[in-house]
Amino acid sequence: AIPLVVAISTAVSANNGLLIRNRTAFENSRNITTIIFDKTGTLTQGSHEVARVVSLNPAYTEQELLRLAAGVEQNSEHYISQGVLRKVETEGITIPASSDFHYLPGKGLEGTVEGKDVKVVGPNYIKEFNIQVPENDAEDGVETVVYIMIDQQVAGFITLKDQIRPESEEAIKILKENGIKNLLLTGDNERVAKSVSDKLGMDGYLANVLPHQKQEKVKELQQNGEFVAMTGDGVNDAPALAQADVGIAVGSGTDVAAETADIILVNSNPQDIASLILFGKATYRKMI
Ligand code: ADP
Ligand code: MG
Questions:
Q1: Does the structure show a pLDDT above 70 at 135?
Q2: What is the pTM of this model?
């Protein structure tokens, strides 16, 4: 039989924006010592608005770069894709057809547009292949930067601005007050990661992280005796969500993340995570 106090707490959780998929993990949430947050769509809104389009090759205008980028981005539901497609629509650009589309997990995407190989990729890809790109202006410091590659050459880049969720600061504050460590893990660039981590007063961050590295970080913390919760919203976060002692998916995210997670944040509100842990502690205190 389910102890009454647990049954009640589960019902209360539903009212607090939590959907419990794994009761054991939910009950264990009171033991969490470290929470890892994915950035995009979890602590931030994922409202990615195109700020700048810069051509690095005189053969391509900025409009042309946007058009080719949209050709591949139309195949994806990622926040970056949505931002690029909104911009293209505003500019009245017709999106070209694409074929051979595929994801480069944690790095971006690739497809064929009008006979050209077009990639839209982040710093991870650029770093891995040792591709040189000019330093951006300081004003790009807190923006996500994606590079447009045409036939293996960097042709330009797009910067996108995202917003921190208004509830994130309070969520981090409550966690810290209760002695729970927090860490930001993101596939995005170093400066964006640092900016979000600093603004929210987080304990630390890791940038340019690939999906398997998110999972390895969870494992490393567990081996150091931490009881780890991980929050995420993307396909890329699934391995880390599965590895975590408590996997928490953001409700607005992908089905893959939701299917891997123990708990779903129905309203995508990070404050509900703080409530979850504090509520779990209070509930079990009552049982003893
Ligand atoms: P996060 O860890 O912040 O949730 P993701 O793992 O979703 O980020 O993406 C990591 C990085 O991969 C992005 O910052 C971007 O550089 C690149 N990327 C992912 N999806 C796309 C896309 N649709 N278009 C361009 N770049 C992308
Ligand atoms: Mg994500």
A1: no
A2: 0.87
